[in-house]
Design goal:
- Two copies of one chain form a homodimer.
- By secondary structure, chain A is mostly helical.
- The first copy, chain A, has nine helices and no strands.
- The first copy, chain A, has helices at 17-37, 44-51, 55-61, 65-89, 94-114, 116-122, 129-153, 159-180, 185-204.
- In chain A, helix 1 packs across helix 2 (44-51), helix 4 packs antiparallel against helix 5 (94-114) and helix 5 runs antiparallel to helix 9 (185-204).
- The first copy, chain A, binds a DNA duplex through residues 12, 14-16, 18-19, 22, 43-45, 53-60, 63-65.
DNA sequence: TGCAAATGTGAGGATTGCTCATATTTAGTG
DNA sequence: CACTAAATATGAGCAATCCTCACATTTGCA
């Protein structure tokens, strides 16, 4: 049976307190290394050394290098999802939805700018199909959250249509963030603003 | 002095006819291998073997594995750019632009569906910063082409604004394609249609 | 205390991108 | 044709790195 939370990527769940702390140290070491040089330059031996752990222990919990990155990715995703759920929870009418969505974009962009690890992971610098699947599932989940609020306030209430559009809007939001952090700051800001206007028009239209 | 065409990624330009043909065979072998298992599973030794060439010859022309992928990517990009330039060349009014752009999206989507190598390269499965730069430059160039036509027919003619929006529209177009080929066909088609409607509204708005 | 299960270790196997000293082929010249 | 220099071709092997596995240690528990 698979666990559904972030530990799903683990080879073996640490049951004792000591090993739980060790796994946490491994993830912290990995985070630090990704901050310094990106996940591509992160070496498994270095992760083990920084965590004060043998290479064997590392592989006892993480089946491969990608699993570490995936675990971190799912943590960030879970945080983001919670943030989106909270932002959309109290939405009662279209105007509220538009304001909430606009605020979420700004928040997300701020996080993207501030979190080098998140940037690295989602910048396409990972040759890992499993990571793309995680990305896709995340967009779907976020799309569902948006669709839920959207359907509550839409005039024209075609469910499938709105769910699909919500999925697209969320996916393109991520794409815009990736694009924005690849160019100089001022242009990135303007691109995000353009996307936001476009997305709001799309939402307000239904 | 750098060459500006696709051979810019080469370590040494083949000047004799024999070596030109060999380089072409290397690229063909690489294409076949990517079609079979993706660029990640492509082995340099296998490329050399299939091309009927030694591993040393391969590295005489391509500085590293990524350079082969990059060379192929730039070929596809050049084709796409030519297609876009042609499609937008005769645009005289807003209505013509909207029709031309819509047609280009369909064409591009068709190519994406039909070309496994292009799909593989642009599916984010490449741990290569240089490839992301190529992607970015391609979107910029395509954005310039769109902006040129757009400015000709726009009522509100703010140059920088239109150029940036054209860049965004093109980038999100690529992102939509990537998304569309990651889901089942029917949903992908619908997503592309949604994007198209959104982009056309954005263009018609300026 | 004793034992089984959980956890920890690190030398080394295996893969693979890439180099370099050497050999062969081509183009050009007298 | 003979000769030379530049271009091109070769593949054994180096270096880096992910990951395994046989064995050692620690923990929970009766």
């Amino acid at each position: 049976m698979e666990k559904t939370d972030e530990t799903g990527a683990l080879r073996r769940a640490p049951s004792q307190k000591r090993s739980q702390e060790r796994v946490e140290r491994m993830l912290q070491a990995a985070t630090a290394l990704i901050e310094e040089g990106g996940s591509d330059a992160m070496r498994m031996g270095e992760v083990a050394e920084r965590a004060g752990v043998s290479i064997g222990s590392l592989y006892q919990y993480f089946p491969d290098k990608g699993a570490i990155v995936r675990t971190l990715a799912e943590r960030y995703n879970a945080e983001g999802r919670a943030c989106i759920a909270e932002g959309l929870a109290g939405v009662r009418d279209m105007d509220g939805l538009l304001r909430a969505f606009g605020g979420l974009i700004d928040t997300y962009y701020g996080i993207f700018l501030a979190e080098p690890v998140m940037r690295d992971i989602w910048s396409g610098t990972q040759a890992d199909k499993a990571l793309r699947d995680i990305d896709l599932r995340d967009s779907r989940a976020n799309g569902e959250l948006l669709a839920e609020a959207w359907q509550r306030v839409a005039r024209n209430n075609d469910g499938d249509d709105i769910r699909r559009k919500a999925f697209l809007v969320m996916s393109l939001g991520e794409a815009t963030m990736r694009l924005a952090i690849s160019v100089e700051r001022a242009e990135g800001d303007a691109l995000v603003a353009d996307y936001k206007a476009m997305a709001l028009r799309e939402i307000g239209n239904a």
